[in-house]
Amino acid sequence: MIEPMNIVVSHCEAGSGLAWQRSLAQHLPQAQIGLDRGSPDGATPAEPRLTSDAALAVVWKPPGDFFARHPGLRALFSCGAGVDHLLAHPGLPASLPIYRLEDAGMGAYMADYCLHALMRVLSREDAYAAQQVQQHWQEQPWLTRAELPVGIVGMGVLGVQVARALTAQGFTVRGFARTPRTVQGIEVMAGPADWPRFLAATRALILLAPHTRATENLIDAPALAALQPGAWLINVARGALVVDDALIAALDSGQLAGAMLDVFRQEPLPAGHPFWHHPRIRITPHISGPTQVAQSARQVADKMKLLAQGAVPSGRVNPDTGY
Length: 323
What we know:
Number of strands: 12
Order of helices and strands: EHEEHEHEHHEHEEHEHEHEHEH
Strand order of the largest sheet: 8-7-6-9-10-11-12
Distance between the termini: 24 Å
Strand content: 15-25%
Shape: elongated
């Protein structure tokens, strides 16, 4: 049981920490909620700041000295679905429980993003855009949904939601997971033995897996070569899942017809990176699954209430698997 409920919020983006603080306060009116002094939001007399007495923390990419300044933390909550930024933090206490967001509105946005990407492929939108630049008038053959079987890597809460949304739109969808699981209406393959079969059945590969030791560089040259010819890659997970040089080589060879990338190894994507200028790559600035602060704060507040009651909320991260 955690009592009293003293909470500190730390967010690397100006304005976001304040939004989280105010949203949490709506659901936890009896709690003391302060902004970390390392937050870029700026101090005002109306916004309390906690230093070392917080028991709970809500964070996104906290500063390097954050945990040293908050030694009394008993639970940590990520402001997003990903927790790789926390697990890689050099000051993270090994025994500190971490809880991740479980959708909180992000899944619907990701499903729309992936559906739009697939429809762009089916309608040959890129080909027509290139023809317009050349003032060239030529009808292109449509692809059918049957000609674009979808494979989703990562069948967690978000992956399942995207899979169901695409299935409802008539796409053939298969999932791949680290361990076996059952999702009604969707074939899910699992483990190393199924990996080659999963790739061979896929022409549109969607990445929705977390960044862990097991998934880093998962999409390498052999994986891309195992996809159906003329395949597409849609990455809305983490940039480190893909070997950049292998992706460019697969695009240049024609094994891949194109890639739609929302995430990158380094963000913002550095100036001069070959992704910016490659004719078969479309880039968006990590916007496929924006965090909905109001819904997310409600979810985090509910988890905190359970902790205060001595219960165990869902979404606790296993450090060994990274999610």
